[in-house]
Amino acid sequence: MKQHILILTALLLAVPASFALKPSLERPNVILLYADDLGIGMLGCYGQQVVRTPNIDRLAAEGIKFNNYYGGVFCAPTRWTLLTGMHDGRRGGWGHSQGGLPIQRDTGKITQEQYEQKLEQLKKNRTIPDHEVFLGQIAQQAGYKTAQFGKLDRGFLTWNERVRRFGWDFHEGYYCHVRCHGFYPAYLWRNGERFELEGNTDPYCGKMSEEGNEPVGSGGKTYSQNVFIKSILAYIREHQDERFFLYHPTQLPHGPVAIPELHPDYADQDWTLAEKKYASMVRMLDDHVGLIMQELKTLGLDEKTVVAFTSDNGHELYYGPKKNFPNTRPGGEKANLTDRKWRTSECGDIFDGAGGRAGIKRAGYQGGMQCPMIVRWPGRIQPGTETDHLSAHYDFMATLADLIGAEMPKGKDSLSYLPTLLSKPQPKEHDYVIVNNNFNRMGSSALIAKDGWKLVEIDRKKDEFQLYNIREDNEERHNLEDQYPEKVSDLKKILLRELNSPRPDLVESL
């Protein structure tokens, strides 16, 4: 009871939504489609030339496309920032939590008793403050039904009570982040109940090799994404007379690559098998977006539903060309993702998944963190709109609150971009957004300012930073740190202040 009282208190102390839709009848359903490791350059509406994405492109043509939108640099922190409404540099934020523990049990490496002991210890160690408010709860307190399908965790391992604590009335999918790397799980979870998938037996969920040379469809019989799309369409039908917020963090197109069958457009291409599989995964993602849009139209929910599409972080290479990057620096020191900037346009990536940008997943360059964001709401959002408004995943919470007439808890970093969606003046906007990578061996953190300046942290211990003007140089080819030392100093102070900063949303006195 204490937990529910504290959560209610946090919401009662909330600030009114800044641009909320006033008439209750205008409050729409909201669907958030969240791709996994999909580079911004993989979509036709952002310049993709090889793989077709007609349904996602139609979302953009009938809605608004963001050109200055940021996720994270890899999975766990970017999901944390979306669900909390806080930037991922905040102290005590995301963290790993025993990923792979179910696989250890299922392969006999630990007993069921040991598994339960470890899980109980994890629950004690990974407690959530009673007054913390998550994305799903924002919709719940506005009277919405909430549902999540797919990759249920925000930091590697979760369980029924934890998913419900995040604000999901209904959930279906994977409790373990590591199991998500395979598309043929022997079982999934639905509202705390385990259910088996026909023909799947591998404890590693049919995970393929990184080379992607296995025969198509060899992981098992039942492909997880096909399970999720059926359940999503059924949920929409079952709740068509209620307001709902549906969140679908899909596995697609995260690797290793696996697909039940190659898309006919790519089966006969002169590509590697891994490239054909990857293109087919992207195309399946697009096809499923089309199925959702068609279901909304069939049910007469088209103009009553906001559909948003984005990805968690920048592009990742699951089909071979990483071998074209040297593993060492010229002096023999081990290379990392900031060396030579890992340009997909220059490494043999036939898709150029980062769309000419520097960097891939885990890097602090644009190709590692700049994400697509497309929002469609027929009759309210002007078709074919584009915006350079600076925003990030943590802004979705406040935007959702404005859309559905909910209130925002105090202390969140989230700022609503609903005015931008509706082509109205934006009363509040960020001076900068923060993207953090505390795995410095793999990449870098960054600050992106609204005037176009961007500071990239290369090595904090060595005081290595780079400065770019992404309005003029979004490919980050010209490091300007030497020309503008005062700008570097100013932005560095802000970035280092924000990294590991306390969370104002967890101060109960607010």
UniProtKB/TrEMBL annotation:
One Pfam family named in its UniProt record: Sulfatase
Annotated Sulfatase N-terminal domain residues: 28-405
CDD domains: ARS_like (cd16145)
Gene3D superfamilies: 3.30.1120.10, Alkaline Phosphatase, subunit A
UniProt xrefs under InterPro entries: Alkaline_phosphatase_core_sf, GAG_Ulvan_Degrading_Sulfatases, Sulfatase_N
Name the UniProt record assigns to this protein: Arylsulfatase
